Structure formats: structure tokens, C-alpha cells
């Protein structure tokens, strides 16, 4: 499982994250790509299952769609618990608001890695 960069200039976003490709998937940062590799190992070992990349959660308040939250990963533990993860470098005000909305609407906490 090799890390490949999306281009030779290693473009960075405003937070200095470098887009990184693993197994044909392009991740927003090297940290996110690394976490994906770790989760694959855990899945192969049987510690997690049903690994999903970038699951989307629609944010509806009082019947109005106010936005969406896209997590980095979602998976099931060996005990059958659902885990939603976000690899965070910078916690923007928008992210903090969406995290609270996800908790209020869906009833779970986002695990920050």
C-alpha cells in the first residue's frame, strides 16, 4: 500500500494539507491517508468491518435541510457499534457547528483522530 501524491507539485490547501492517494483514493491530507491505511489493517484483522469512506449525513432542522456533513470514515466495531471518524488538523467554526448538529440530529459523537 504505497502513498502516491496527486501531482508532482504536491498542491497544498489553505491549511497546508497535501492531497495524498492510496489504493486509488485521493485523501485531503497525508494524515487522512495514513488513518485509512490503519483502518484497512484493522479491517483485515477483523477488529472492524464495513469501512465506508466519506459517508454523508444530511443536516435537517425543523424539516429544513440546512446542510450536510461529510465524515472521513464510518465503520462497525467488533461489538457492532458504529463509529464515525474525522481526521482533524484544524477545527474550523463551521466544523464545530456541524459536529454539534450531527450530535443533536443523529445522537452520536464524531470521533476526532
Structural summary, described in words:
The protein is an alpha+beta fold and 113 residues long. The protein contains two helices and nine strands, in the order E-E-E-H-E-E-E-E-E-H-E. It has helices at residues 30-44, 93-106, and strands at 3-5, 20-22, 25-27, 48-53, 56-61, 64-70, 73-77, 82-86, 111-112. The strands form three sheets. It has a four-stranded mixed sheet, covered by helices on one side. The chain has a three-stranded antiparallel sheet with strand order 1-2-3, with helices on one face. A hairpin with a 2-residue loop joins strand 5 and strand 6. The longest helix has 15 residues, at 30-44. The chain is globular, with a radius of gyration of 15 Å.
Amino acid at each position: 500500500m504505497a502513498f502516491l501524491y496527486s501531482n508532482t507539485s504536491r498542491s497544498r490547501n489553505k491549511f497546508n494539507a497535501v492531497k495524498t492517494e492510496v489504493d486509488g483514493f485521493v485523501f485531503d491530507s497525508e494524515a487522512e491517508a495514513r488513518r485509512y491505511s490503519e483502518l484497512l489493517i484493522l479491517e483485515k484483522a477483523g477488529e472492524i468491518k464495513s469501512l465506508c469512506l466519506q459517508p454523508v449525513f444530511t443536516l435537517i432542522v425543523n424539516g429544513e435541510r440546512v446542510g450536510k456533513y461529510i465524515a472521513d470514515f464510518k465503520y462497525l466495531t467488533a461489538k457492532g457499534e458504529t463509529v464515525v471518524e474525522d481526521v482533524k488538523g484544524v477545527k474550523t467554526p463551521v466544523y464545530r457547528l456541524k459536529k454539534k448538529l450531527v450530535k443533536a440530529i443523529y445522537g452520536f459523537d464524531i470521533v476526532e483522530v
